[in-house]
Amino acid sequence: MPDDVDLTEAILAAAVGGIGGSTRQGQIDMAEAITGTLRGEDHLLVQAGTGTGKSLGYLAPALAHLVAHPDERIIVATATLALQAQLATKDIPAAVAACHEVTGTTVTHAILKGRTNYACLYRARDGQGQDQDSLFGATDLSESISGTAAATSTRVGAEVILLRSWVETEAEERGRADRDDAPPHTAQAWAQVSIPARECLGAQRCPYGSSCFVEKSRDTARSSQLVVTNHALLAINALHGGTALPEHQGVIVDEAHELVSRVTGAASHELGPQLIERVARRCLTWLADDLALEFLEAAEGLRGALDAAPLERVEDPDSPIVVAFRVVRDVSRRVVSAMGGSTDEDNEKRQAAAAAKEVFDIAERMAAMRADDVIWVAERERFGRQAHQAPLSVSALMRDNIFAEHPTVLTSATLKLGGGFDAVAASVGLHGRDEVSWRGLDVGSPFDYARQGILYVAKDLPAPRREGITAETLAEIAELVWAAGGRTLGLFASQRAAETAAVHCRQELKDHQILCQGDAQLSELTQRFIEDPASSLFGTVSLWQGIDVPGDTCELVIIDKIPFPRPDEPLFQARQRAVAERGGNGFMQVAATHAALLLAQGSGRLIRRLADRGVVAVLDPRLVTARYGNFLRSSMPDFWMTTDREVAIGALRRLESQRSGGGTG
Q1: pLDDT tens-digit readout, 203-248
Q2: Which of the four CATH numbers 3.40.50.720, 3.10.129.10, 1.10.287.70, 3.40.50.300 does domain 449-661 have?
Q3: Whole-prediction pTM value?
Q4: Which distant-in-sequence residues (6+ apart) come within 8 Å of 359 by Cβ?
Q5: What does the alpha-carbon distance between residue 292 and residue 286 come to, in Å, rounded to a whole number?
């Protein structure tokens, strides 16, 4: 059999040929470097620009390694469901077929998600709220769900019944009951047919354990050589001693620019009075009246403390909010103790006790006020005030439980920030006290950014203000959209700014269709944007990364301001201070790095194919006037840059003229 490198190149060539593509040098360089990492060389950070063919670039060496080491397993972790679906339905089948063509071996593969991504038979069949089933048939409820006049509770109830019917169909047909395949539904409805890991009865106790969708997915993963999962489950595996994923010998992290954020999310918690009240009601049946009352009063006490607390980080261990955490901790500990000793048949009690234990664990963590935690109070429009806990850093967690355990590859189109890999390497734990051996590789992009795109920085506009978007900036946005004939993706730092800009452009450009995030579901708005190239779409953070709109649908990307985190955001604030206390530059290592990543992602929306042309307009003069401007610009694609508005307007008008006149330019 040929060596790993030759085998990798042969599989890659066959896979690319199988989908009608052509192998690119950057893809070959990437695959060769990953081959070295999988056989035990340094951990690898590899930046592969849009259009490189990144997925096949890492699948080919992974499959070659598994052919040579059939008893091993490799984990591929992605951030988005869209990429996971693409891997499952397109890239992996193509790569596996190519591998079989070259080697005669079929590598087994599976998709594995977190527990709540699969329906739970026990919750769907024996959970509360099933009395609605006797009143309506599942097929009679579509109008209830889609009717705009239907009350929210009615719609959710209808969704639940449809979901239960779907779960039974999945069980009969030996399906996966994966949420992505479910009928349209809200989060509230899905919660009625799924179960948190904490409340799971376990396959041995559950009456439906032998048919459990989660257990089947895990069995399939345990018998597969290549397992695709998500960043959150990779984080949970690191947090809980390797129990969430099957044993593996290598890890490839795609969309790695999002890894820190996803791991932080998996290690964070919220505590609010609504959660405590909901759990208390579940426990009432098995509690003495006085203890049940104390549990409810603890929720009310937390509500009062939250209402009185400032919306900022909690640092005083004797503050009323921390006292409230301690009360919740102490009462919930007694509730857990009182709920103990449930029998195998008492499943409802067992699940209620597990929910109470979760309240206790969160309250205990918040009451402890650990130095490596950030605790703060925030307010959400729908749920009111909540207490939040997040780790100050996740770098040690990743270093000790991912990099120290397995050869690891991190890949993304945006890993070089400020022109190098050090910022990302530090954030994931590859720098520091116990530095891990790693190397960075930039395999480039097939795109000629300097010829395909212009970066226009509006040097003459006023600097952004906290009060909101300026009149001068609004006028500039309208003129740019007019020059482009629509075809604009507007990326804004806040929803208010996006809405203000949309209103202004609708007034000034009455013959243009301006779509704005919040007008409808984002998927619907994106589809309308794609179908009508002359339209424009304005929105916030969810549009900065992940949206892929090639061609003349998007010839102008507007960025209203440098996307620094809010200066009063407690977690970023705490991380900046921690860096400063260690003698570093907290602003550059935290705020500027965060902004650089988003700028790289946002400006990367412009050029998605070799034929794409256009302008990225950054309406924040600090990109060229501030000292940190060079760092930010070097994180973005290498567009030709100008600060002359007329140059940008002229380029957009020429593109518009070429379309209307049929020219190619």
Answers
A1: 888 999 999 999 999 999 999 999 999 999 999 999 988 889 999 9
A2: 3.40.50.300
A3: 0.89
A4: 271, 275, 276, 279, 328, 332
A5: 9
